Amino acid sequence: MSTIKLELVTPDGGKVFAHEIEMLIVRSTAGELGILPKHANLLTELQPHAMRVKADGTETLVAIGGGFMEVTPEKITILADSAEMAEGIDAERAKAAYKRAEDRIAAYKNSPKDSDIDIKRAEAALARAKARLLVKNVQV
Ligand code: ATP
Asked: Is there a smaller number of Cβ atoms within 10 Å at the N or the C end of the chain?
């Protein structure tokens, strides 16, 4: 089967992942994208989500906290704000982040005018926590 190189880099963790893969499914700001070998050149922004990496016949989920993706026919490069595989995720921390973000969003919805809550920031935090819990296979 043909493959494409995936390189995933974060500001703090350096190179999280570098591997020949068969397929990548990501959520960009323009919607879901499936990337196969020999894909056309592409530069896009990624949402916080659980991306799906298919390699060696198996699928692995990686929690991405947003970032940018560059695709050429031979290589995918992702510069992620944060990236963790299941073993790197602290489920209790992600649950606490989920609850905090949910409470902030609820408070904002109760009184949007009086609130000094940054709703976009709270929604992004909720999406990061959801992605981590999905990768960790934890229900909330
Ligand atoms: P928190 O409010 O718990 O810090 P967050 O979504 O605001 O969550 P980020 O800013 O996305 O956190 O990440 C900061 C750093 O902490 C990154 O290096 C990220 O990989 C790491 N990190 C965040 N949450 C977790 C978690 N639940 N398990 C493991 N590492 C985490």
From this structure: N
CATH topology of domain 90-136: 1.20.5
Can you count the helices (H) and strands (E) in the chain? 2, 8
- Would you say the CB of residue 80 lies under 6 angstroms from ligand 1? no
Dist. CA 47–CA 78, nearest whole Å: 12
Q: pTM of whole model > 0.85?
A: yes
Domain boundaries, the chain: 4-84, 90-136
The tens digit of pLDDT for each residue in 94-103 reads 999 999 999 9
Residue 13 in this model has a pLDDT that exceeds 80: no
CATH of domain 4-84: 2.60.15.10
Q: Is 77 exposed, middle or buried (0-12, 13-18, 19+ CB in 10 A)?
A: middle
Q: Is residue 134 within 6 Å of ligand 1 at its C-beta?
A: no
Burial of 9 (0-12, 13-18, 19+ CB in 10 A): middle
**What's the length of the chain?**
140
Query: pLDDT tens across 40-61, in order?
Result: 999 999 999 999 999 999 999 9
